[in-house]
Amino acid sequence: MVAKRIIPCLDVKDGVVVKGINFLGLKEVGDAVDMGVRYAREGADELVYLDISATREGRNTFAALVEKIAAGIDIPFTVGGGIGSVDDASRLLDAGADKVSINSAAIRDPELIGRIASKYGSQFVVVAIDAKCVDGTWKATTHGGSVMTDKELFSWAMEAQQRGAGEILFTSMDHDGTKGGYACEVYERLSELLSIPVIASGGAGSIADIAKVLTEGKADAALAASIFHYGEIGIQELKEALRKENINVRI
Asked: pLDDT digits over 187-226, tens only?
């Protein structure tokens, strides 16, 4: 059985890791490279770095940062944020990233998924979906959750898989940063619908939350930020607890 993955997520603005609640109220947390090195040492399976810088200058800073991250850690890491073309993806992959995550650009230009996958392989392409539940329907958003689209979560995830995505990273914006638990029923449905891995994001507040999304939610990986950034749960502590629940994780 494939091991479940634990993935710290680092939102980066101009080289600094930040964190907010429901994508708002950002506060500086620490240095992006130093935190990545620490998480790798503590036993993280992978890392996700999301560039939330609003300017092209910020994007250039991020590409240089990716080189430093690649030199400093020995676990796979995914990078995303502002990737709008194959050239954007190439610049980050050439800098040392293991995968790229695309979100708004994939909704705007779904064929981008296939173009990147054709050049590098599906295993390099993560399609991130930030969605809100509106009148009982999960709707995908863009631009950090500020723009609602007509894309429905499940049909869009299926389309992304068909176009060449190697993984789906779904963040429930209703749960993000709240530490109230993941949207487990949604992850269960996604995992049963898709044949590619599903990464759960949004709502981790306890070991029990993560155990639940990896079992009842059937997610292949659990992504979290605040609980790791603020030292509320250690990665090794988490994995040992998951093992006791008969959840297969690498220690």
From this structure: 999 999 999 999 999 989 999 999 999 999 999 999 998 8
Alpha carbon distance 32, 10 (integer Å)? 7
State the amino acid at position 166 in one-letter form.
G
Confidence of residue 24 (pLDDT cuts 50, 70, 90): low
Q: 10 Å Cβ neighbour count for 213?
A: 30
Which token pair is 41?
Answer: 């040492």
Q: Catalytic one among 51, 88, 130, 176?
A: 130
| 141-171 confidence digits (pLDDT tens) | 987 778 899 999 999 999 999 999 999 999 9
Residue 58's pLDDT band, with cuts at 50, 70 and 90, is: low
- The question of whether 11 is a catalytic residue gets the answer yes
The catalytically annotated residue of 11, 176, 209, 220 is 11
The verdict on whether 45 is a catalytic residue reads no
Confidence tier at 57 by pLDDT (50, 70, 90): low
Q: What is the pLDDT at residue 226?
A: 86
* Alpha carbons 4 and 250: distance in angstroms, whole number: 8
Question: CATH top-level class for 5-244?
Answer: alpha beta
